[in-house]
Design goal:
mainly alpha, Arc Repressor Mutant, subunit A, Tetracycline Repressor, domain 2
Length: 211
């Protein structure tokens, strides 16, 4: 292994160390109360070291979303490349994939939804913002293609596939955020899976073209 390769590996290891520490701090204190000093302390690094890797707290917070967006896109691409699936079966595979994405890291996906609906995006560097936009757009396009196939085969209602993808994503994120807020108030109330199943079932029924 060359010197440059070792340096790159060490840099990536340090970056992951910071991200893991940030996740713990954001989980315990929330975004608003957490500071770069808190994260540096958790990572056992100096605050100055953090700024070598991340422009600000917002960018560090957003970095947590990149991982889940990458996992989401891989899952959606897998659904789209499954052979011999009927439109209804591909829709079910899509819904199963969304449950899997949530289970992959519930905290991070909740953070991602908060990020996408906040002022935090305005404080990201152009490069970082570009990565988030690219992954988000590709994911929505992958969802839209599932609906487009069903529309062409006259199984789903004739609505714009991108609009259907937006509605599906809004449904998913809305239920996740709402149930997360309810759980914050009362930890004994955790009905996310049941509520999401009901929401997806209602959506799937409304998506079918009347016979």
């Amino acid at each position: 292994m060359g010197i440059q390769e070792r340096k790159e590996r060490e840099k990536e290891r340090r970056r992951q160390q910071i991200i893991v520490a940030a996740k713990r701090v954001f989980s315990e204190k929330g975004f608003n109360k957490a500071t770069m000093e808190d994260i540096a302390h958790e990572a056992e690094l100096s605050p100055g070291t953090l700024y070598l890797y991340f422009k600000n707290k917002e960018e560090l917070y957003a970095s947590l979303s990149l991982r889940i967006l990458q996992y989401l896109l891989i899952s959606l691409e897998h659904v789209n490349t499954e052979k011999d699936l009927k439109p209804e079966e591909r829709l079910q595979a899509l819904m199963d994939a969304m449950f899997d994405v949530y289970d992959f890291d519930p905290l991070i996906i909740i953070n991602m939804f908060h990020l996408q609906s906040s002022e935090t995006l305005k404080n990201l560097s152009p490069d970082f913002l570009s990565k988030i936009k690219e992954l988000s757009q590709k994911s929505l396009a992958a969802i839209a293609s599932i609906f487009e196939e069903g529309i062409k085969k006259e199984i789903f209602i004739d609505k714009h596939p991108t609009a259907l993808a937006d509605i599906f994503w809004a449904l998913f994120s809305g239920v996740v955020l709402w149930e997360a807020s309810k759980k914050f108030i009362n930890e004994d109330k955790d009905y996310l899976k049941q509520t999401l199943e009901a929401a997806f079932e209602i959506f799937a029924r409304g998506l079918k073209r009347p016979i």
